[in-house]
Specification:
This protein has helices at about 15-25, 40-50, 60-65, 85-90, 100-120, 125-135, 175, 185-195, 195-210, 245-255, 270-275, 285-300, 300-320, 325-335, 345-360; strands spanning about 5-10, 30-35, 55, 70-75, 95-100, 120-125, 150-155, 215-220, 225-235, 240. It folds into 3 domains: about 5-120, NAD(P)-binding Rossmann-like Domain (Rossmann fold, 3-Layer(aba) Sandwich), CATH 3.40.50.720; about 130-245 and about 265-275, no CATH class; about 285-360, Rna Polymerase Sigma Factor, Chain: A (Orthogonal Bundle), CATH 1.10.1740. Helices cover about 45% and strands about 15% of the residues. It is globular and about 55 Å long. The protein has about 350 residues and is an alpha/beta fold. The chain has a 6-stranded parallel β-sheet with strand order 3-2-1-4-5-6, sandwiched between helices. Strands 8-7-9-10 form a 4-stranded mixed β-sheet, covered by helices on one side. β1, α1 and β2 (about 30-35) form a beta-alpha-beta unit. α3 (about 60-65) packs parallel to α4 (about 85-90) and α5 packs across α13. Bound molecules: NADP nicotinamide-adenine-dinucleotide phosphate. NADP nicotinamide-adenine-dinucleotide phosphate binds near residues 78, 189 and 247.
């Protein structure tokens, strides 16, 4: 029987890739509802092609979940907007195919606890977490289960557009930050990739998805974006997942894993690629990785403040209100002043978010 889906953020980069997968496999999937924020015509057009209901506006994602049923809810909005619909979908017993990593960064404790209670699964959509999931699935069929044989997770990072740029990034323009060398993505995640905040978020996402402590999650820069991540096991063996950089591979696996659906997508040709390169990230050029570690050490709501400050700063940068280096500076300013508070409820996460926006707007 076809799996029923809800797609939140249907007009975005992930959402449109998901639509492409669904339309290529009409017997495997049906879509009951789709949601977007502002793109009314595009959302309605996609809904018509899918035979789904369209929801547009601030509360569209929550309404789409509350008024429709599905086996899997694909959460592919941006930032904090993913949190309430994720909780609503969990409460209705849907598995969550999670693209919106900020949900885990801000509220990992809350949403994983609610998912355990409801008996639903998180299905990773990020290519790195999909890679880890695929490496773990081969481990005696454990998938997202036992972690006892896992030594380290190694997340790969493309390094973004400024990997080899001159060290002074103070004159970086919006167009330069949006010019990602490998991946075509929405603006927020593209800027986050350029600062490597995105990779920091992925460390936190992996911590909650796979129940592996942050100090056992490494990052390695891999400019070709062919190896999507690796798992080192306690016997010294390391598994990796490789594919050409195409998000549809990861999105499709989230919707079908551990089963695989065939596709005509480009196959990996290692002899044509020739060489794969790896190096350590530069902590001076990419201070956001340090800020993520500091937020983890601070605990409580610090990672919610981190994500909220980054959401404010990236939108301010995209709107021309602050410069590029002020993205990390804004985050650091909030982290160093953040009050200590637990972050185990929706109210606490929203309060941390509001505190951060007041601090930055004030
Ligand atoms: N793109 C990638 O390859 C990629 C890879 C890994 C992870 N991710 C993660 O996936 C998420 C989506 O990324 P993206 O690149 O697809 O973003 P995007 O292209 O900017 O698309 C965002 C989508 O979310 C919708 N949206 C935003 N706020 C909403 C709200 N409050 N309610 C309902 N819909 C809302 C937008 O609607 P409108 O069109 O109406 O504005 C749009 O459909 C991000 O968290 C990102 O970090 C993306």
């Amino acid at each position: 029987m076809a799996k029923k889906l809800i797609i939140l953020g249907v007009t975005g980069s992930i959402g449109r890739n998901a639509v492409d997968i669904v339309l290529s496999h009409p017997d495997e999937f049906s879509v009951t509802a789709v949601a977007a924020l502002r793109s009314k015509d595009a959302c309605e057009d996609l809904a018509r092609r899918l035979g789904a209901k369209a929801y547009v506006g601030e509360d569209a994602a929550v309404r789409a979940v509350e008024e429709n049923d599905a086996d899997i809810c694909l959460v592919a909005t941006v930032g904090l907007s993913g949190l309430k619909p994720t909780l609503a979908a969990i409460a209705k017993g849907m598995d969550i195919a999670l693209a919106t990593k900020e949900v885990m960064v801000m509220a990992g404790e809350l949403v994983t606890r609610e998912a355990r209670r409801a008996g639903v699964r998180f299905l990773p959509v990020d290519s790195e977490h999909s890679a880890v999931d695929q490496c773990l699935a081969g481990e005696r069929g454990l998938g997202l289960g036992s972690r006892s044989s896992v030594d380290r997770l190694i997340l790969t990072a493309s390094g973004g557009p400024f990997l080899d740029a001159p060290a002074d990034l103070s004159t970086v323009t919006v167009a330069q930050a949006l010019n990602h060398p490998r991946w075509k993505m929405g603006p927020k995640v593209t800027v986050d990739s350029s600062t490597m905040m995105n990779k920091g978020f992925e460390i936190l996402e992996a911590r909650w998805l796979f129940d592996v402590p942050v100090d056992r999650i490494d990052v390695v820069v891999h400019p070709e974006s062919i190896v999507h991540s690796l798992v080192t096991f306690t016997d010294g063996s390391t598994l990796a997942q490789l594919s050409p950089p195409d998000m549809r591979v990861a999105i499709q696996y989230a919707l079908t894993g551990p089963d695989r659906l065939s596709s005509e997508r480009q196959r990996l040709d290692l002899s044509a690629i020739g060489a794969l390169h790896f190096r350590a990230p530069d902590p001076v050029r990419f201070p956001c990785l340090r800020l993520v570690k500091e937020a983890c050490q601070a605990g409580g709501c610090a990672t919610a403040v981190l994500a909220a400050a980054d959401e404010w700063a990236v939108s301010a940068f995209l709107a021309g209100r602050i410069g590029y280096v002020q993205i990390a500076e804004s985050v650091e300013k909030c982290l160093s002043a953040a009050p200590q508070m637990a972050c185990d409820s929706l109210e606490a996460v929203l309060e941390a978010n509001d505190w951060t926006w007041r601090k930055l707007e004030g």
